[in-house]
Each structure stands twice: as structure tokens, then as C-alpha cells.
Amino acid sequence: MRKLLLYIGIVLLCLTTGCEYKDIDRRIFVVAIGIDPGEEEAFKVSLKLAIPQGEVTKIDEKMLIITEESDSISEALRLMKSKVEKELDYVHCKSIIIGEEMADRNIRHILDWAVRRRDIQLILNFAIGRPAALDVLKVKPPSERIPSNSLIMAMSGQGTESPFIASVYSYQLMRDIYEQGKDPILPIIEAEGETQFQIDKVALLDKEKVQLVLNPEETRLFNLLTRPDLRTNFPARVEDSDFQYYTESSNTSYKIRTSSMGAPVIRYKIKIRGIVEENSTQELITHNLLEKISEAGGKELEQSVMALLEKIKEKRLDSFGWGLRYGSEHWNNETEAKDWKELYPDLKFEVAADVRIKYSGLIK
Fold first, then answer.
1. Is the confidence at residue 157, as pLDDT, over 90?
2. Residues 271 and 347 reside in one and the same domain
3. What is the pLDDT averaged over residues 121-145?
4. Mean pLDDT across the stretch 16-33?
5. What's the number of CA atoms in the CB half-sphere (13 Å) around residue 174?
6. Quick one: 277 and 130 in the same domain?
7. Do residues 307 and 200 both lie within one domain?
8. What pLDDT was estimated at residue 17?
9. Is 4 within the bounds of a domain?
10. For 44-48, 85-89, 102-106, which range has the lowest pLDDT when averaged over its residues?
11. What is the CATH number of the domain that holds 295?
12. 317 and 196 assigned to the same domain
């Protein structure tokens, strides 16, 4: 019996074919993809390529950008194969940039393609490029040694830790688009010439396209409400003096309260512990003044957050997942989505900010 199994195994091994592996010197690595509306076709697809040099000590790696228009993304990629002499490899692709004009129309087609593509990872970053995706791909900061590495580090949080950047991976975007009770978001990357970009805004989408773009201050508040321990600063005005306090730790939670007699209420509770980072006066900061700064900072934060929540509600968006939370607390799966949709227009907000400034930032 063992000999028979051995003979069968040998025969099967003889029937197997070798893989289509190609050496690294026969590949060009795609590190970023940009998708804009085409001038003559539906899509203009751009690929940012990193060309391997073969030497680890190389200071600057070579890069190339190629574009192609087609009525489908897949066809554009295959047409671009005829523009290079090596095989296009997508295993190192970390970013897909959607042009602003395309994001204002519909992003679902692009996302569906990216998720289905077998050689593109589900952990790549999605973002909106302003004014176009191709303009963002062309940006090459002087500090960048590996093609598109500055964009990858900024978006993934491996480099800078900015309170204005919100990272969105493809699996998160796919989940939010198809999940009832939560709408997707995308960061906006603005190209400023050919050597600099800026990421300080967030676009809020419905299930298809952009509905609202938050300014930098609103984006910072959005990140405060959606992730813990945001490292940033906020203002506090005491009488005629302006202060800035740095958040050493932050935490945000909320509860949804509904009743048959009144409108539903979402109660936000924000807890911040920080230090004074900037003082516009020469006044000595005492314990009494620290308490005043804490109180003033809390009130200003409550007003700013309340304005942001009302602005998002006016657009009938649910970027925080309120509907998802409501559904998790109610057990009627057949009607909870419909119930929340009916409750949403009457939604009220309450915001309580507990700001505590621990010390002045100076050593006495």
C-alpha cells in the first residue's frame, strides 16, 4: 500500500508545472495607483513605478509614471503593459488615489475593482487627490529616497503622527460602504507643486460619493472623536489671554438615549489630560489659573464639537457609526435600520468635555 501511494505521488509530481516566477530584474514595482476621469474614455489610470536598482546603497531610486485611458480600469492596466519592457508587479502597491472629480461622482466601481484584484492587498490606503490623482503621484518631496515612500509613511502613520490625517484602508472603506449604520470617509491629499503635498482635510461620503469636506480644524475634531490619545493642541481663552494646551491623553465615548416621548439624544463625553504649551502673556501660571484654563478649554471644545456634529447631521451622514451603535443595542434586526432612519432627523446632541490641565509645562 505504501509503495502504491509512493508511485501515485511521483506521478502527480511529474504532472505539476513550474510557477511563472520572474526574477526581480525583470519586474517593475507599482507603488501607487491614481484614477481620474478620462478626457476621451471613462477612466484615466496612472501608475507610479519604482524601478529596482540592484544596489542597496543607492541614494535615489528611479521612478516612472505612465498613464492610459480606457472604459475600464482592468483594460487600462493591460494596455500599459505594452509601454514597459518588464512585468508590472502590484505586491508593493500601498496607495490608491482617486481624483477629486471622480470622487464627486462615484467611488464604488473603483473600490470593487481594487478588492477583487487578487494581487492588490486589502491594507493599501485609499485617498482623494486634489486637484487630480495624477498631480499627487507626480509629487516628489526632496526628503523622499524611495518612490512614493513619503506618501506611504504619512498615510500609514509610520512616519508623521498628524492630528489632521485619517488613514483609511481598502477593507475599512469596503466595510463602511456596505455596512448599514455607518458611512465612509476618505482623507484628501492636496498637491502643492511638484515637491510638496498637504493632508489636512477629510471628505465625508455617503455610500457612493463625497457629500461634505471638513476643513482642517473640523478634521482635527473628527479625529478626536474617532480615535483615542490624539496628540494635538487646542485653544483656551481666559479673559484677554490666549493659551494653547497640548493633549497628553484623550478619550471620547458616547451613548444614545431614546424614549417614546422625546427626540433621541446622543451624549458625548470627552476626557482630556494636558499641559499648557503656549502662553500669550508673561503672567505666572498658578494652580488657580490652570483651573480657569481647563474650564475655558472645555467650554470652547464643547461648542466646536457641537457645531461639527450639527453640520454632519444637516447632510444626513453617519460617519461616526451612530446607526450601527443603535442597531447593536436593539434586537429587532428587521426594523432597526428603518427605525433609526426615522429617528435621525430629530436627533439631538449633548457634549460634555472634561479638560484637566495638569501643569504649566515649566519646571519651577
1. no
2. yes
3. 91
4. 74
5. 16
6. no
7. no
8. 54
9. no
10. 85-89
11. 3.30.300.210
12. no
Is residue 339 a part of any domain in this protein? yes
Shared domain for 40 and 148, answered yes or no, is yes
**Are 152 and 171 within one domain?**
yes
pTM: predicted TM-score of the whole model, two decimal places = 0.89
Mark which of 158, 192, 214 sits at the end of a domain.
214
Residue 39 grid cell: 478626457
Give domain status of residue 16, yes or no. Answer: no
Same domain as 181, residue 260: no
Closest to 112 in 3D by CA, of 178, 180, 184: 178
- 346 and 222 assigned to the same domain: yes
Full residue range of the structural domain in which residue 120 is found: 22-214
pLDDT in tens, 247-264: 999 999 999 998 767 788
Q: Which residues contact 197 (CB under 8 A, 6 or more apart)?
A: 136, 139, 141, 150, 151, 189, 190, 191
pLDDT of residue 59: 53
Residue 211 dihedral angles phi and psi, to the nearest 5°: -115, -25
Name the grid cell of 157.
502613520
Residue of 313, 307, 305, 320 lying closest to 353 (CA atoms): 305
